[in-house]
């Protein structure tokens, strides 16, 4: 991955963006190499290794949604900029940065919510039967001629095989981290890798569960979900059940802005 750092060569400052990466640059007339190992934004630990020819000030950002952060090196925090400052000597240094991350919901239209943990949006994955054909006209099933597009071009149809008309009780959300995370949180944590590609269906080992039920949710033009009915009119059409929420990109058919209901 390309380096993701902002440096100031004259003043001896390095501002590190939150990214797994490696960069070598010149700061205040001296060479600096920064390596960062992390599974962010899926997990919260960033492990930095820095080699510098001259002393420098190193900054890491605390996201606005974070409730705080822990650094294994002495640091100072500027609440206006959201930056933690670590003064590093010449030579080799390592430190671990842990962002304090929690589940949160953000309101959307029609009494729905989007569910986040840190930067990651989570969604209810809907099981589907997936078929494909060559490219065809959007309004019918007439295939275009074979030379219309490269042979790799396909049109996919995804038909849900499980119910999508669910409402959730946000107060019941539980986050389930993966069993194996960073093996140590000291000076330079060892970061256990995540599955690759991480956004493949079923790949992310972390998920959420939430209590939910089926509700009346009308279709738009008899084909796709329309606007949910007002919350005051929502009633469970089923017993409460557990719904699994997964990182958005790994759910190929999904419900993301979820109606709320009190269970």
Largest sheet report = 9 strands, antiparallel
Give the ordered list of helices and strands: EEEEEEEEEEEEEEEEEEEEEEE
Name the poorly predicted regions.
Answer: none
Given the helix and strand composition, which structural class is it? Answer: mainly beta
Quickly count the helices.
Answer: 0
Helical content class: under 10%
Query: Kindly state the mean pLDDT as a whole number?
Result: 89
Assembly state: single chain
Termini separation comes to 45 Å
Q: Which percent band covers the strand fraction?
A: over 45%
What's the number of extended β-strand segments? 23
Radius of gyration: 24 Å
Count of structural domains: 2
Q: How does the overall form come out from the CA principal axes?
A: globular
What features would you describe in this structure?
The chain has 263 residues and is mainly β. It has two domains: 5-100, Sandwich (Maltose phosphorylase, domain 3); 103-127 and 162-179 and 192-259, no CATH class. It is 0% helix and 46% strand. It has no helices and 23 strands. Strands 11, 12, 13, 16, 17, 18, 21, 22 and 23 form a nine-stranded antiparallel beta sheet that branches. Strands 1-2-6-9-8 form a five-stranded mixed beta sheet, with no helix packed on it. Strands 3-4-5-10-7 form a five-stranded antiparallel beta sheet, with no helix packed on it. It is globular, with a radius of gyration of 24 Å.
